[in-house]
Structures are given as C-alpha cells and as structure tokens.
Design brief:
heterodimer, A: mainly alpha, elongated, B: mainly alpha, two-stranded antiparallel ribbon, 2 strands, 73% helix
C-alpha cells in the first residue's frame, strides 16, 4: 500500500479543485459528499500504511522522488519520505479530517457557502498531508505556507463579520513572521549543504560536524524553531491562535487543535537530526516548550469563552510536545502529539456540539447541560479526563512519557511541567463543571438546548474511544516505540547511494552519545513521577469541583476579586498582543514616513527639482539671450542705422560744402605732415 | 525574413493597416489590432517551439534564429537579431501580454484608431529591444518605445495625464542619453569599431577597468530608470496611476523588464569589470527596492499606486538575484521577471476592472465585496497571494531562487530583505480585508461581477500563475542552460561573491 502514499495528498487536492470549480454553491450542494468520499479513500490508504508500519511488514523509511525543476547544476525533487512519525501522522490527519468532514455535515447545516467550505477543507487536508509526506524541505515549506492559506480562508470563512476578517489576517501575518525565520533557515541550510532532501541531509548530519558544522546546525535549528513557534503557537508567536477561534468550530478542531498547529512540532521532529547535533538549539526547543506550556495554562484559568479555553489548552499542550522533543524525548513528544490529536479534536467537536445547542461561546451562558446532551457530556468527560492525565487514559501515557524525560533531563524543569499538568487538570475540569454541571447560566438557552444529530455524535464517539484506548494500546504493545524510533533516525543510512558508508560512520557516534546521556541522566524514585502526576490530576479536578461544581461559583468569584491584578494580566494575555500591535503601528508609521520622503523629498526635490532648475536655467538663458545676445545683434543694427542717419546729415549734395570739406582735409593733412 | 523579424514587425504591419482603416470603423480597427497581436503571439510561439535550449553540459548554445544584414556599412552598423534562453521567454511574455492587453483595450472608445496605432508601435519597440543584437538597432528600438508611451499616457490617461506623460518621457530620455554616450564609447573603444553586441562581448577583455566602470555607469543610468531602481523610481507610481489600464499592464509587465534585461545582456556581458565594481552598491539598491518599495506600498490607499509600488519591491528581487552572479541568482532574476510580468499584469487588469465600475480605487471606499462579486474577489485574492509569494503560485519559486542565490554572497542584506516579504504580505492582506471582507458596504449593491472581455484578459494569467507555480521547469528549462553559461562566463572575476 505504501507505494500509493503519493496519492494521499493528491486526491484531496483534486477533490478541492473539483468541488471549487465544478460544484454548485448553496446549502443543498452535494459537494460535501464528494469531499467525504475522497477523505474516506485517503483514510483507508493511510490506515493500511499505518497498520503495515506498526506491524513492521514494510521497510521504513520509504523514500521515492521524481525531479521537479533544475537551476544551475542543482536539482529540486518532489517526493515522499515515510518514516514512523510520518506514517503515524498520515493516519491521524486523515482520520480527524474524515471525522471533521462528517461532523460538519451536521454542524454547517444550512450554510449558504457549503461548497466553498468543503473545498477549503479538502485543500487544507491536501496541504497538510503534503507537509507530512514530503521528502524535501522546500516542498515541506511550500505545504507549510499552503496550510497557512487554508487556515486563513477557513478562519475568515464568515468574512462578513469583522471578527473573522481580522482574525484571519492576524493568523496569517503572525505565522508569516515565524515563516521568515524558517525561510532564512532554509537559505542557510542550502548555502551550507546544497540540498533540501531530508535523506541527504540526514546522511550528511550523521557524518559529523566536519560535514554538518555545529554553528550551522545551531543557527538552522534556532531559525526553524522560530518558524515552528509561529505555526505551533509557541511563545511569543502564540497570539494568533486564540483569535483563530473565530472560525467554524469543526475547523478549530481540525486545523487549530489536531493537525496544522502540530506542524511546528512535526518540523522539529522531522529535522531532529539537526537538533541532535546542536545542543543549544535543542535547549531552546525545550525551554520554549516549557515556558509556552506554563504561560498558556495560566491564561486558560480565567477565560470564559469555551473555545478560547480550548485554544489556550492547545497552546499549552503544544508546548508540552516541544518540551518533550527538546529534552530528547523524540518518541514521547510524538506520542503526545498523537493522543492529543484525538482528545483535543474531541474537546473541540464537543464544544461545537454545545455551541450548536446553545448558540453561544460564553461559558456563563451554559451549565447543567448533562441531561440535555448526554452523549456530548460523556464523550467530553472522557476527553477531559484524558487531557487531565487520569491514569490509563491516552493522555496519561503520553504525558507520563514526556514528564519522565523531563525529569531525567532536569528536575527543576519537571517541577514547572508538573505544576502545568495540575493547572491543565484544573482548567479543563473547570470548563467541564461549568458547562455540564451547576446551574444553567441562561435558562432560555438551556430550554432550547438539545443533543446534536448523529453526524455529529458519531465522530464524538469514535474519538472518545480512541482517547480511551489509544495510549494504552500504543504503549503496552510497544509498537509505537518500534515505529517512532530516534536511533533509527539518527543512525539512518541516509543517502541511498552511500548507505554502507553512512551506517559505518554514524552508528558508533550515536551509540556513544546515548551512553553519555545515560550517565548524566537524573533518576527519580519509581513512585515519584506517577505519584505526582496522579496527585496533580485529581487535585486539579477536585479543586475545580470545589470552586465550580455548585451553581453560584461564589468562592471562585471571591478568589478572582482578591487576585484581580493577576487575572487582569492573564486576560490581557501578558500583553503580547499589545506588543505586536505596537509593532504593526510602528511599521505603519515607518511606511508613512518613507512614503512622505519618497513623494516630498526624492520626487519633489531631487526629481521635479531638476525640472525647476532646468526651467530656471531656461529663464536665465532666455533673459541673457533676449538682453545680451539678441541685444548685441540688435545693437549692431541700431548703431549702423543711427550712424547712417547721422552721416546722412553731412551729405547734402552742396558743392560749397564738399569744397569746404576738401579744404579742411588738406589743411589737417598739411598740419599732420609738417608736425611729423 | 527570420522568425524574430517576423515577430517584431507583424505589429508594425498591423499599425499600418490600422492607419488605413477609416476612423469610423471602430470595430474593424479593434479587430485588426487584436488579430495583429494574436499573430505576433503565434509567431513568437513558433520561435519558442523551434528553440533548442541546449544543456548545461554542452555549455549552452549560441544565439539562435540569427539574422544579420548590412545596414549602414560606413559605420559598421548591422541589422542583427537573435535570441537565447534569456531573451526568448521575454519575447513570448511581450507578445502574450500585448495580446491580452489588446483584448482588454477593446473597451476604449476615445480616438480608437490612434490608440491602437501607438499601441502596436509600442509593441514593435519592445520586441525589438529583446531581439536586437546590434547596439545601434537596440538603441533605436529602445527609444521607439518612448514616443508611443508618451501619447498613450498623455492622451488616454487619468486626470494628471499630461504631467505624468512628460515626466515619464523626460525621465527616461535623461537615462537613455547617457546610454547613447555609453554605446558610442564602446563603439570607439572597440577595434575595429563595432556596434555588434556579440563582438563587443568577445572584446571585453580589451577594455580597461576604469573604462568599463565609466561606461557601466552611463548604461546604468539608462537601465536603472527602467527597472526602476532606487532612487530613479519616482516616475513609476505617477505613470502607472495615470496610464489607462492596458498601458499600465504593458508598462509594469514588460517595459520594466527592459532594464534588467539590459543589465544582463549589456552591463554584465560586455562590462563585467564595471559590473563587479558596482556589485556592493547593487545589493544595497536591491535591498532598498525590496524593503522601501514594500513599505511605500503599505502607505497607499489608492490600489493602483499600491500595486505600482509593489512593482518597485518585486523588481528589487530581480536585482537581488542579479547581485548574486550565480546560476541560481540569474535563474531567479529572469524567472522573477516572467512571473512578475504575469502577476502584476493581472493585478493592474483587476484594479482596472473595479475602477471601471466604481470610478474609485480607494481601498477604504469598499468593504465586504467578497459576497457581492465572488469571481472578481477570487481572482483578486489569488493574484495577491501570487504576488506575496505563496507557494503553488508563480511568485514563490522565483523569489526563493533570488534569495537562495544572493544569500551565500550577501548574507546580511539578503536576510534583511526577507522582511520585505512580510511587509508585502501585510499590505496585500490589508487590502483584501478592507475591500472584500467585513460588513458589506451597501453603496456597491449593484456592482456587477467580471464580464467576458475582462475574464479573457485575466483568466489566462491566473492559469499561468498556477502552472508556473506548480511546474516551474516549463520556464526554467528554457533559460537555465543559457543563464548557467552566463554565470560562469568570467571565471577569474567576481571574487567578491564567490
């Protein structure tokens, strides 16, 4: 099946084009079924690939390329590179895409631009799958930008409202800022290595620093991290994700929870061999992840908009994944990515179900909905327990794996991480108690609330099942460890044409690194890590019950009152937004000033100035010409004329006068001659 | 008569035919003009079909479709034409855009006969510039573009058309006078005296460095005005804004490319020492063009002026690639010329479409049009995304190659220039948001969507954006061998970037 992997991104792309150009627009459009059918086919293929990979019946990595274009003596290729993480992500992305498309049939019922919605969804999925399978970093970057486009289109789907119109632009621009880092990273990487092919790069990295210099690896790693921070909403570029919630809720589940936002994490995992070679970049990944996880969790504590709580939670969990990768837990980070995709998509779809029922995003309008919407309440409850880290659910395993690596790496980082885990359990339960328990916030809305149709509840059920069992299954069977294996990545034979050389060189180096890491690792007593995690999970849940389980939230309100300055900072999102708005304002002023300079100084003075100078010169020259040159010419004429007129008076034709002139002349000449 | 002469002079024939048709026969005149441009397009496509790009391994190929006739033997002036992988894509771009703009021009009702006469004459000049391989002939065609452009802006332009036309004319003439001096200097320095570009390329070793620098500057003044390179760019916003839509398309789509083409064909190939001397300045100018052009565009509220300034920014990418003096950079620069030609032409058409309907181009005057004119909104969004360098559309690969080529040689300026990409995205997205998104402005409730004539002009461009974005080798394969050979033409030189 794996030889058909290239079809997985191409099919949704074709579907998107067909839907957009051939479909009929309107709420009764039949196009959603085309999108759904194609997605189903993709899901089938990727499930096969995932199963084959898990069972080890195909040789990974699978690598195949075709030439794309040439410039100079370089060749760019298009191709697929499927390793363990890619196979996993293929499955996750196609599954969530399929479920979200199914769910949208119900959620978007009556939408007048249904055709376009499905075209955009298919476009997104195509780009995301391209990003996952691409064997070439340039193509990965291209797909990276295209998922950004799809995100722009879908966040701004209800573009008549000012909110989505603004949020879509904000999301695109913030991620684009991160992309600039990635862009420079690509330039640097190519200047040093002369290729974007992941296999080739992996091979060169395995040869050691004389082929892949440390400072290049460090710089590229940091620049890629900046790009990843944009896409995966890490500090300081996380500001777009809460606003992105203006998009339709199924879109938030697909793009802003399960798939696109993990692209940054995936990028770090995909280029893990670079980070492995650059400890500083690796450390930056870990700290970025940790800070993000902590800050986002604090911001989720005070939010009232149900989708924003989930958005902050997503940011926080993405930070967790980064943290996992950064402390060397390659497998743990990707494990959490997988389980998170299931329970976070479920949370968003569940929230969508609630929003669909009460027509509000505000948790203050909700409450006591468990009787009205039992399926939603149960499934969301499972997701909340999973994310909170209740033992034996999927989130418990993946979070434990990360925390374990963090402790080995640095116990003080573990302390922050475990506190974050406690906050996660608290704010997720806070959401749950507020929405499904307590008293109805708005009795009118409560009256009209009802359980969602089957198109929506079936996806909830599937995801709930996966949130329950996926962690235990992947962990206990040991298959995920075999599939997503860091040693295989780092000791990879890399370049196919030099496979033998590669392993010989790389294997001892990797083995040595492993041994050194073992020696430095911190070891905790066996009870400490799981014990602390259980304590935090249940502590968070119970504290939330204490504060929000009843109807009036008096205690919570009192605490908020007492620490209002903290809440204010959290609600202002640590003022990161203000900082970026200031930056935008600054560049606007700069633009205005430069344009003024362009129009008033360069154009008016230096260019039109020449015209003025020329005209002044022309005037001077005209003046000179008229007064002097022309004057001189006229003067000669005038002198001749006047002279003639004067002389004419002497010549009057009288003989006596002529004789007198003759005599006078003789006299003068005579005097002249004598005196000489 | 060779295929290049045929391509170049078909529009001249068309211009003469237009002259012979009585003024009242407007439909006939339009038909004749459009058919003429179509014939020129067909001829250039024949040339493209017959062209052999060669391979890098065989060191490219010499000029193809060569024609050489004595013209003024006393001064060793020849009528000489030829094309290679550098000029042929530009020739096809010219005939293609001229055809589309001619179709679009059929809506012009004022002094139709004169319009198409000047329009076709302009096409002759532009094609001649890209085909000519004799300096004298080159200069003649170069100047030939001036007069028709003067009238096209001055008669059919906007409110400040006379001022814009005279400013454009004088500005360009100022540059070309220096270029003429440069041409004469080359003529008298070469031995035997020649205007033959190919001969001059061979003779370049005999020119001293100081001579090359001086002549380079003379040429640069002429070429920089056309590019336009900072600080010689201020004619462009004015001329673009005042010119009628099809003329703006030609101006931005083709005329600007003559500058970069001249830099490669003449400055680099004949005066490498001068080019080498100028490189540290060229990279700064490229950086200024990119960032300053983008920021100036962001300050605009007039859509057309914004697009005009975005051209300053995009031609900066060409200069960036040119400053690399590598096959990557040259490929990027020439591909960027083609892609910018396609994208900016579409942008000007689209701005024209809204102006024809609304009689305003003020970005803040609209709002929520996306719901009212979906086809227009879709095409405009696509073109803007192509212009801001979205992968999958034409601009991305060429921009990236320019950066990729320049980075090893000029790390700091290249990295700083990346910020231009961000600003470009900012002003295009802001425009899209203000015009198409948000609450619908009821004032435009009767705004019709695009008509057939407009779609015929824009849809092919949109198609090419997609095609070249996904499969850039369609263009790159034609030019890569030539440009690779050009980049390696002076092995001992350009240590500064190697």
């Amino acid at each position: 099946m794996i030889e058909y992997a290239y079809l997985i991104p191409l099919l949704p792309l074709a579907a998107s084009a067909l839907i957009l150009f051939l479909g009929k627009e309107g709420e009764h459009s039949k196009m959603p079924y085309l999108g759904l059918a194609v997605m189903g086919a993709c899901l089938l293929v990727s499930t096969c690939i995932f199963a084959e990979s898990l069972l080890g019946s195909v040789d990974l990595p699978y690598y195949k390329t075709i030439p794309w274009f040439n410039f100079g003596q370089f060749e760019m290729t298009l191709g697929v590179l499927i390793d363990g993480p890619a196979a996993t992500l293929l499955f996750v992305v196609t599954l969530v895409s399929f479920l979200v498309q199914l769910y949208s049939l119900g959620y978007m019922h009556g939408e007048k631009r249904l055709k376009r919605y499905y075209a955009y969804l298919s476009l997104f999925t195509a780009a995301m799958l391209g990003l996952v399978v691409s064997s070439n970093l340039l193509v990965l970057f291209a797909c990276w930008e295209l998922v950004g486009l799809a995100s722009y289109l879908l966040i701004g789907f209800w573009f008549e409202k000012p909110g989505p119109a603004y949020a879509s632009k904000k999301a695109f621009m913030t991620t684009k800022l991160g992309d600039c880092g990635l862009y420079v990273g690509l330039l640097l990487l190519f200047a040093s290595q002369g290729t974007f092919d992941l296999q080739m790069l992996q091979y060169r990295a395995s040869l050691g620093p004389e082929y892949f210099p440390l400072e290049i690896a460090t710089a590229v790693g940091l620049l890629f991290l900046f790009g990843a921070a944009g896409k995966s909403a890490q500090v300081p570029l996380f500001i777009w994700l809460p606003d992105a919630m203006e998009g339709p809720t199924p879109v938030s589940a697909l793009i802003h929870a399960a798939t696109m936002v993990v692209a940054g994490v995936y990028l770090v995992a995909r280029t893990f061999f670079i980070y492995h070679a650059a400890p500083i970049a690796m450390g930056a990944v870990a700290w970025t992840g940790l800070i993000t996880a902590f800050m986002a969790a604090t911001m989720a504590l005070t939010a009232y908009d149900i989708k924003r709580v989930l958005a902050f939670s997503t940011v926080s969990q993405l930070g967790y994944m980064m943290l996992g990768l950064g402390v060397g837990g390659y497998n743990a980070g990707l494990f959490h990515l997988t389980t998170h995709a299931f329970f976070k998509a479920l949370l968003f779809l569940g929230a969508g179900s609630v929003i669909h029922a009460v027509h509000s995003n505000d948790m203050r309008d909700m409450g006591e909905l468990r009787h009205k919407m039992p399926v939603t309440a149960i499934t969301v409850g499972i997701a909340v327990m999973a994310i909170a880290g209740v033992p034996f659910l999927s989130g418990w395993y993946s979070k434990e794996a990360i925390l374990h690596h963090v402790y080995e790496h640095n116990p003080s980082m573990w302390v922050i991480a475990i506190i974050t885990a406690g906050m996660t359990a608290f704010y997720m339960s806070r959401m749950y108690w507020r929405v499904f328990f307590g008293k109805a916030g708005d009795s009118h809305k409560w009256e009209h609330a009802h359980e969602s149709p089957a198109t929506m509840t079936v996806p909830l059920g599937v995801l709930a099942f996966l949130s329950l069992v996926s962690g235990a299954f992947l962990e206990k069977s040991g298959m995920f460890h075999t599939l997503v294996n860091v040693d295989r990545l780092l000791a990879a034979p890399g370049s196919p044409e030099a496979a033998g050389l590669g392993t010989a060189h790389a294997a001892p180096a990797a083995g040595h690194g492993q041994a050194a890491a073992e020696a430095l690792a911190h070891h905790a007593p066996a009870w400490l890590l799981p014990g602390a995690a259980v304590l935090m999970a249940f502590g968070g849940i119970l504290l939330a019950w204490k504060l929000y389980g009843d109807g009036d939230h008096k205690l919570a309100a009192a605490i908020r009152e007492r620490f209002s300055w903290v809440a204010d900072i959290l609600e202002a999102r640590y003022r990161f937004d203000d900082f970026f708005l200031w930056l935008v304002d600054l560049s606007d002023r700069l633009a205005g000033a430069l344009f003024w300079f362009d129009a008033q100084i360069i154009d008016k003075i230096f260019i039109d100035g020449w015209a003025a100078v020329t005209r002044a010169l022309a005037w001077v020259s005209d003046f000179f010409d008229f007064r002097f040159v022309d004057g001189a010419v006229d003067g000669v004429g005038l002198i001749t004329q006047d002279g003639g007129r004067a002389l004419r008076k002497l010549v009057r034709g009288q003989t006596q006068e002529y004789l007198m002139y003759a005599a006078l002349s003789v006299a003068v000449l005579t005097v002249f001659v004598i005196t000489r | 008569m060779g295929i290049l002469s045929l391509t170049t002079f078909i529009p001249l024939l068309g211009a003469l035919i237009v002259l012979l048709i009585p003024k009242g026969q407007v439909k006939l005149i339009r038909g004749a003009a459009v058919l003429t441009t179509l014939a020129a397009l067909a001829a250039s496509l024949c040339a493209l079909n017959a062209f052999d790009p060669g391979t890098i391994a065989m060191d490219g190929l010499p000029m193809q479709f060569m024609e050489k006739y004595d013209w003024i033997p006393t001064f060793n002036i020849h009528y000489q034409m030829g094309a290679d992988g550098l000029s042929l894509p530009l020739i096809v771009l010219t005939t293609f855009l001229c055809f589309l703009a001619a179709v679009y021009s059929t809506s012009i009702t004022e002094r139709v006969k004169e319009f198409f006469f000047w329009y076709l004459l302009l096409e002759v000049g532009m094609l001649g510039v890209f085909c000519a391989l004799d300096m004298f002939l080159f200069y003649m065609f170069w100047e030939l573009t001036l007069v028709p452009m003067y009238f096209l802006i001055g008669v059919w332009g906007g409110p400040k058309k006379e001022f814009a036309a005279i400013k454009f004319f004088l500005f360009t003439l100022f540059g070309s006078v220096f270029m003429l001096l440069g041409i004469l200097a080359l003529y008298f320095q070469s031995n035997p005296h020649t205007f033959d570009m190919l001969e001059l390329m061979k003779a370049t070793g005999g020119f001293s460095r100081e001579f090359q620098i001086i002549v380079f500057m003379a040429f640069y003044l002429g070429l920089a005005v056309k590019v336009p390179a900072f600080p010689f760019h201020t004619w462009l916003p004015l001329a673009h804004v005042e010119a009628p839509t099809p003329v703006s398309v030609i101006l931005a789509g083709i005329l600007l490319k003559m500058g970069v083409y001249g830099l490669l064909r003449i400055s680099y190939s004949i005066l490498p020492a001068g080019y080498e001397w100028f490189l540290p300045y060229l990279i700064v100018i490229a950086f200024i063009n990119i960032v300053y052009g983008a920021l100036c565009a962001m300050a605009q509220t007039d859509m057309k002026k914004m697009v005009a300034y975005s051209s300053v920014n995009h031609m900066g990418y060409c200069l960036l690639g040119m400053a690399a003096v590598s096959s990557t950079g040259f490929n990027g620069a020439v591909l960027q010329m083609i892609n910018h030609g396609i994208i900016t032409a579409a942008l000007f058409f689209l701005v024209g479409v809204i102006y024809d309907r609304a009689h305003t181009r003020d970005i803040t005057a609209f709002g929520g049009l996306g719901a009212r004119v979906p086809v227009y909104a879709g095409l405009m969004a696509m073109t803007c995304f192509a212009s801001l360098g979205l992968p999958g559309l034409a601009g991305f690969i060429s921009e990236f190659l320019c950066f990729l080529g320049a980075f090893p040689a000029w790390k700091l300026y290249t990295v700083l220039s990346v910020s231009g990409i961000l600003v470009t995205a900012a002003f295009f997205l802001r425009m899209l948001q203000k015009v198409f998104l948000g609450p619908f402005n009821e004032k435009w409730k009767d705004l019709p969507d695009m008509n057939l004539r407009e779609l015929v002009a824009v849809a092919p461009l949109a198609g090419l954006m997609l095609l070249f974005g996904i499969w850039p080798r369609l263009v790159l394969d034609i030019m890569n061998p030539t440009l690779t050979v050009m980049a390696k033409m002076f092995p001992g030189m350009f240590a500064i970037v190697r």
